[in-house]
From TrEMBL, chains A, B:
Native source organism of the sequence: Geobacillus subterraneus
InterPro entries, sorted: DNA-bd_HTH_TetR-type_CS (IPR023772), Homeodomain-like_sf (IPR009057), HTH-type_TetR-like_transc_reg (IPR050109), HTH_TetR (IPR001647), KstR2_TetR_C (IPR041490), Tet_transcr_reg_TetR-rel_C_sf (IPR036271)
GO molecular function: DNA-binding transcription factor activity; transcription cis-regulatory region binding
GO biological processes: negative regulation of DNA-templated transcription
DNA-binding region: 22-41
Ranges of residues in domain HTH tetR-type: 1-59
UniProt protein name: HTH tetR-type domain-containing protein
Alphabetically ordered keywords of this record: DNA-binding, Repressor, Transcription, Transcription regulation
PANTHER family xref list: HTH-TYPE TRANSCRIPTIONAL REGULATOR RUTR, HTH-TYPE TRANSCRIPTIONAL REPRESSOR KSTR2
Length: 189, 189
């Protein structure tokens, strides 16, 4: 039931917005009582936090797995991270949109929790880029912080536009994006 | 007064969200009556559309000016567009955040109007990239559409993280970003 409540809420939050969706709307959609909702969640806000934390914790686990894989080059790891982010938009588009749009409705304590994990994702990406600079796989005259934010922005922005039926697959989009980010759009020199 | 209503609303929408802000909150913040509000705007939603349209129309005018400047190379034009987007986040951070977050509260007709202009911005950027491919300033083996979305994503994402007091200026951030996008993060070959 916990999973069903989360799934129904994600659908309603995306359609109508977090503020416009009441607990009553959620339980009506499932044909259960408010008591059932309160058995699993203290409030609508706690449910929203749950959605946010699951989303970012899933991404962090996967990012860690990619970075720890000793057989992959930095380029391959960057590709895998960009692919993961775009694939995730394809697979979990609703969660992704709620994740980016509804953060302001979290309370201060919960917001801090989610922000720490988002920051962790960013700094792990930055550390990977710094490793690449040290090993000579990446150029050293760029700010690792701006480089990480450029990669993140390019990939995350896909939640605004990526459609699974849009001609290119998530893997092809990620491949082109990594080509741009690592080799550049300029002519081959 | 129209300008004052817009300014006060932007502040309230950013702090509390569009749904949570009432017309009463807006007129209270200005010490005027609801009648004053209705003299300028039919509804809160019409006001939101006004904020959205001003924002995107300003960007479109500036983009057109950059693209039409015959003295600039494609690289310089891309730099100018990325700089404009980041500078705009610095200068008009609130409008930018409302622009990206509160779009779902526009009605269908207004949403279409704003979407058309957003799409125009994207397609003009894409056309610039296609010009660069034709002239040999940019490599030809990339999808111009993915290239445009990668540039847009990198620059627009800055509304999540760019702070004027964050160490690098908007011009320096734009310069590093364009270096990544055109020359790549890979080692000089």
């Amino acid at each position: 039931m916990r999973e069903k409540i989360i799934a129904a809420s994600i659908e309603l939050f995306e359609q109508n917005g977090f503020s416009e969706t009441s607990i009553q709307d959620i339980v009506d959609a499932l044909g259960v009582t408010k008591g059932t909702f309160y058995y699993y969640f203290k409030s609508k806000e706690e449910l929203l936090m749950d959605i946010h934390l699951r989303y970012i914790e899933g991404l962090l686990r996967e990012q860690q797995r990619i970075i720890n894989d000793g057989r992959r080059s930095v380029r391959e790891k960057l590709y895998a991270i960009v692919y993961m982010l775009i694939h995730n938009v394809e697979r979990q588009g609703r969660q992704a949109r709620i994740f980016f749009r509804e953060m302001k409705h979290l309370n201060e304590e919960h917001l801090q929790k989610v922000k720490e994990k988002r920051d962790l994702f960013r700094y792990q990406l930055q550390a990977l880029i710094e490793d690449g600079m040290k090993s000579g796989e990446l150029r050293r005259d760029l700010s690792p912080s701006i480089a990480a934010l450029t990669v993140l922005g390019a990939a995350n922005w896909s939640y605004h536009w990526f459609r699974p039926d849009g001609g290119l697959t998530d893997a092809e989009v990620a491949k082109q994006m990594i080509t741009i980010l690592i080799d550049g759009m300029g002519p081959a020199s």
